[in-house]
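Entry under discussion copied across for reference:
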Amino acid sequence: MTEPVKPAQNTPAPNQTADKAPAAKGSTKAAAAKAPAKAPAAKPTAIKAAATKAAATKAPAAKAAADKAPAKAPVAKAGSPKAAADKGAKAAVKAEPIKAGKDSWARIATRNNGSRSISDLLNKAGLSGWNVQPEGVVALAPTGLCIDCERAVGELHTKECPSLDEPDANPRVIRDDTCIPIPMLGSFALMRENPDSEFGWDVLGHTKSEKPPVPIEVRAEMLTSIMKETKAKTGPAGPLWEGKGAFASIRLPEPVMVGGKDPVEIRLVLVNSLVPGRKSQVIISPVRTASQTTFPFGFGEPCPNVYDLSAADDKDTRTTETSDALNLLNTYTEWFTQAANELMGKKITDDEFTKLTNMLFPFPGDTAPKDKRERHNLVYVAMKALVYGKVDITAAIAGTWWAALQAVMIIAEHLDPAKRLENEQLDEQGRAVDVLFSSKHYVHDAFRMARKAVKGTK
């Protein structure tokens, strides 16, 4: 039976000396929180493996020496969530780090860094020359008679009827043999020529406008202008929503150093929608380098991270949008830097950790399906190890609300089970799109709790 994370009033608080990595106030304590010099850095998948093992076998009593805790640190009770977390953390610290290019934007990209220009980036990502056009739409109306031999439905075709020339043709007239095309005035299909498709075309959607959607090459002129202004470099780019849109990004040349030591890359992402119902947007998206985690949220009404673009292909409008996007990039970077430093400077208490974990990942109950109970155990082990710096990717920020927020994002982007495709491969791209555009509720709940904790100290 998986042991739940109990409410704060019933759950013993995580022991600071035994579980929590010491704050980085001196070289001696910082060294104690790290793995031996020859041990490779941590990887979230190792946390998953450790959690599975912890659930399958009874956890032995934790040894103080193994956790590098001070000699007087109390020993965790065998079989408790704390012991499982400690055991999982010790196993996880021997894994490799999350490699660059594994953030959610990079996972869905067909081209990542390395292009010299935006035009080069779009070409290498396969986004240029799509030439999406609106084409007239017709409805197929049944007449009751074959359009070739004029026999009624259910009767035999004449021997000379062209309908019989088709492979596996039905000798009798069926409904499809009687349909005639009727134009649907005012309705258009958004078509993209694609030689790899069955009929040589992709139908992306429908529209009531005769005007073609703005291609990404036109909107991406904005990125070229902002690159020149900020000395930015190209970032990931690729198609979205099964070809119904695309994205391209640039990244500022210098990262934000949270707390003076934790680098975060700031990206400006252009999302270009080709169909009605989805807006084209500019999104400011920070990416923490050590954990390859993104931040799909703004900082309240004063500083959103999203700017909607006009559907019209108007040069003056695009000039204004470029200016607005640059202002948003500068403003958001300032707000993000301030908020991230506040989160780094605020220690998370044991009660706050318990409340956060219980709210975001409540125990599903002893009678819940096995996969849900295993996920809960995995999440608890991961949260404990990540927040308290038991793995190298959070060791430098251990015990802070900044680490807690990273822990949640690591779970969302790298640990949360992805759906399986028909070929049994994990749909990591689908999980990435879900994180970026579907707004997983617990991610936003975690951010609100973190901001509330920081504001409470002012």
Observations:
- The chain has three domains: 16-100+343-455, 110-129+214-325, 133-207.
- The first helix runs from residue 16 to 19.
- The CA atoms of residues 420 and 426 lie 5 Å apart.
- Residues 110-129+214-325 form one domain.
